[in-house]
């Protein structure tokens, strides 16, 4: 049995850092485990321009712990009005690494998102020309479509037509949750990748309802049935470079989760690598963890792999009941449970 894992320093290819006091509270957790992260732009108001991304990037750099060399990789929030000129500015900036598609109404702070991809043709065409990746929250928003089917329907109704119209567009299908998405990404032609969260590898939808409703297991896209979780584990541990790590760590204050209309999002930055190690070990695939965590994402984003290593040790560690969150409280995923691994840096 392996008791110590040494990996190339990993990166998080899908992360929510928020802003202000919340940013200051959560950034050290990510900066401790990851060298870089793709930072989601769904602030209020959203990060829609390169100028706003530059300012947000400075706030993140200023919030880093003493001595940290963590590098935020910025993204722009695609809207119906994003221009080809804005995409060109982003591509030239050197610090914007992707543009994010939120179908309007699909998830947290997506109100300003895209109402109709037909309105984004100029921006998508510019992205294709500049080699700028499109990160996709892949769910349809139609209230008539069952919540659990929204990812599958998105593939058929939105993603396949989009990629047919823009075959050179580099796409990251974010936080995939279904066998349908894993199969699509594995078999699709052209440049496509997918991020997979630790929680979608570890839990199925029963976790949301164990003995009562469990708001801290509620995220979007929502956890699915066991057969989908198994398909995600198979994809993540397959060694296929299209699948890579993206925590989708999405902090919300405890009172905003434990509410009559609780926010979607799981906080996993505190124990991200421990959670992934647990999932990979259960699949007898610890030997595949490094490439998933530290190689394939960098390769997709055409960035150098990190120098240096990190270590995980087999040791019991209780997940805290709550963490400070800028004057409020933040409940990490699986609070109170015991992890079998410890990230030691
Ligand atoms: N994943 C989530 O459940 N929530 C994310 C938004 C997102 O990634 O869809 C958030 O910003 O809170
Ligand atoms: Zn999302
Ligand atoms: Zn997210």
TrEMBL record:
Catalyzes the reversible cyclization of carbamoyl aspartate to dihydroorotate. It comes from Pseudomarimonas salicorniae. It is an enzyme of class 3 (hydrolase). Homodimer. Keywords: Hydrolase, Metal-binding, Pyrimidine biosynthesis, Zinc. The lineage of its organism: Bacteria, Pseudomonadati, Pseudomonadota, Gammaproteobacteria, Lysobacterales. Its cofactor is Zn(2+). This is Dihydroorotase. Belongs to the metallo-dependent hydrolases superfamily. DHOase family. Class II DHOase subfamily. Residues 12-310 form the Amidohydrolase-related domain. Substrate binds at residues 16-18, 42, 137, 220, 252, 264. Zn(2+) 2 binds at residues 100, 137, 175. Zn(2+) 1 binds at residues 14, 16, 100, 248. It catalyses: (S)-dihydroorotate + H2O = N-carbamoyl-L-aspartate + H(+). Its EC number is 3.5.2.3. Binds 2 Zn(2+) ions per subunit. The gene is pyrC. Pathway: Pyrimidine metabolism; UMP biosynthesis via de novo pathway; (S)-dihydroorotate from bicarbonate: step 3/3. The modification N6-carboxylysine is found at residue 100. One of its GO terms (molecular function) is dihydroorotase activity. The active site is at residue 248.
């Amino acid at each position: 049995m392996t008791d110590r894992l040494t990996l190339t320093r990993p990166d998080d290819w899908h992360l929510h850092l928020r802003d202000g006091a919340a940013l200051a509270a959560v950034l050290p957790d990510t900066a401790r485990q990851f060298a870089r992260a793709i930072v989601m732009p769904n602030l209020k108001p959203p990060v829609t321009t390169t100028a706003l991304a530059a300012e947000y990037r400075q706030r993140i750099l200023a919030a880093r712990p003493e001595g940290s060399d963590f590098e935020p990789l910025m993204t722009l929030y695609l809207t119906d009005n994003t221009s080809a000129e804005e995409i060109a500015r982003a591509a030239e900036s050197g610090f914007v690494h992707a543009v994010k598609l939120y179908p309007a109404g699909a998830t947290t702070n997506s109100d300003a998102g895209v109402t109709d991809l037909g309105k984004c043709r100029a921006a998508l065409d510019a992205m294709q020309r500049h080699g700028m990746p499109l990160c996709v929250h892949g769910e349809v928003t139609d209230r008539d479509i069952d919540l659990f089917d929204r990812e599958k329907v998105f593939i058929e109704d939105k993603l396949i037509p989009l990629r047919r119209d823009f075959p050179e567009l580099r796409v990251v299908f974010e936080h995939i949750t279904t066998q349908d998405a894993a199969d699509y990404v594995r078999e699709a032609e052209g440049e496509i990748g997918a991020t997979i969260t630790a929680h979608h590898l570890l839990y199925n939808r029963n976790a949301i309802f164990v003995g009562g409703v469990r708001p801290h297991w509620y995220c979007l896209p929502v956890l699915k049935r066991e057969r989908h979780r198994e398909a995600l584990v198979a994809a993540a541990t397959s060694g296929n470079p299209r699948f890579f790590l993206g925590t989708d760590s999405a902090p919300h204050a405890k009172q905003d989760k434990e509410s009559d209309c609780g926010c979607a999002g799981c906080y996993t930055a505190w124990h991200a690598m421990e959670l992934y190690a647990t999932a990979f070990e259960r699949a007898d695939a610890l030997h595949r963890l490094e490439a998933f965590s530290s190689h394939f994402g960098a390769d997709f984003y055409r960035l150098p792999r990190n120098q240096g290593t990190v270590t995980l040790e087999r040791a019991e560690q209780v997940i805290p009941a709550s963490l400070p969150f800028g004057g409020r409280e933040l409940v990490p995923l699986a609070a109170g449970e015991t992890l079998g691994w410890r990230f030691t840096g």
